[in-house]
Amino acid sequence: MMAAPIESLLNEICESEDPIEELKSLRTAVLATPVSGLRQAVSGARLEIIFGLLNTNDKEQIEVCVEILSRVLQALEPIQLAQNYKTALQSGLNHPNDSVRLLTLTQMGRVAGHADGVTQMLNSSEILRDVIQCISVERIAVAKEAIAALSKLSNTKAGLDALFRSDLLNKLKDVMLTNDIIRYRVYELIVGVSTVSPVCLGYCANSGLISQMLEELTGDDVLVRATAIEMVTSLAQSQHGRQYLAQQGIIDKISNMIIAAESDPFSSLYLPGLVKFFGSLAIMDSPQQVCEKYPVFLEVVFSMAINLDPTLTPVALDTLGVLGRTVEGKQVLQKTGEKFTSVLKRMSKVAADGATELRVRCLEALAQLLTLPVEQQTDDLLLLTESWFNCLSSQPMLMIQNISTQPFPELHCSALRIFTVRECVCVCVFDFMQCCSVRLQILS
């Protein structure tokens, strides 16, 4: 029933020299119409009128047009967008206003996620070039939408061929030359595509861009190096990604970087990233295998936890918590004997009188270390976690209770987690009753 008013408003807009009020009325009409109802309303509507009104310096007019189109275009199938509004979409990609670019890239993402839409996109290499160019736009939200659209395109073999076996690859490389930030946005795209499947990784590797990214791990610029480590850690999220990194000798290289970091005065800028890489590796594969093959990883984590450094200690605490979350990780930590006992004592000191944020992270790590799901509560493991808890203080229960009474809500929550964990694993009836009592006091 709204088709006629919308068509009528479009006619009024077409005839007006200053159509801002008519545009606002149209915005009200389309927002009041369900998307299902808009399908009929826009089927014969001349949306080119609205697209044309984007060509102005009037920010208010652009804003209203974007709101209208954002709503109306939802009613169109992706294939309709690709077939009927190709010119308008291309204009939107090159529009100086970021809101218009965002709108256009969102619609391009819809098209790229549709089988027939992909075919239409691949027939328009100029549009794809413009999408790639949007990666270099200053506003990060625009670049993210461009990366998302290209990632969807890469879900098909035809899309992979277009991006990595045509002139579009040269366009990607040209965009990378803009600056360091843009280069890493392209790496983000490459890593995202690579993690999808071994086939996708093969395309990206053959493009030479992964090798280029890996070379930056040992570059002179420590900030670039730190960013490269983040990218490599993302690549390692997939099993085939980890296999590739191992085959290329990258995991060994990162281990050597940790060793060399001891004599590098700027290591605090990238050492946390190296530790996160191995922490991620340990959880996804095997804590025991990783820690045995790369012993420097755990040594550095212990050192970072003991030597209170505001940059390094938080990462060490998080890593210990992640490692200690699994039974295998607990056993690996226990095998280090006095080394880990010293770390636990340092953690208790941080939890008791460190900076508030550090205390919270410390308590969260301790909660993970002490947690044992019911199905894992063997006598040996219960005694292990009990011994760890008793390492914290001569009166660990009182220590945690004192922390829970301090006027910091975030500390209350973290302390509560430890009491909750202790209720589940207490080997002493008195301790269990004390945990229950204190937990109730915190909750009240």
3D architecture notes:
The protein is mainly alpha-helical and 444 residues long. The chain is 76% helix and 0% strand. It has helices at residues 3-15, 20-31, 35-43, 48-52, 59-72, 78-84, 86-93, 98-112, 115-122, 125-133, 140-153, 157-164, 167-176, 180-194, 198-206, 209-215, 222-235, 239-247, 250-261, 271-284, 287-293, 295-306, 313-323, 327-335, 338-353, 356-370, 379-391, 396-404, 409-425, 429-443. Helix 10 packs antiparallel against helix 11 (140-153) and helix 25 (338-353) crosses helix 26. The model is unreliable at 425-430 (pLDDT under 50).
Number of helices: 30
The helix/strand order is: HHHHHHHHHHHHHHHHHHHHHHHHHHHHHH
**Percent in strands:** under 5%
What about the largest sheet? none
Write down the overall mean pLDDT: 88
Q: Based on Cα principal axes, name the global outline.
A: elongated
Which residues form runs of ≥5 with pLDDT under 50? 425-430
Task: Report Rg.
Answer: 28 Å
- Compute the separation of the termini in Å: 56 Å
The number of distinct β-strands equals: 0
SS class: mainly alpha
Helix content: over 70%
GO cellular component, one term: cytosol
Pfam family, one: Proteasom_PSMB
Protein name: 26S proteasome non-ATPase regulatory subunit 5-like
Organism: Cyprinus carpio (Common carp)
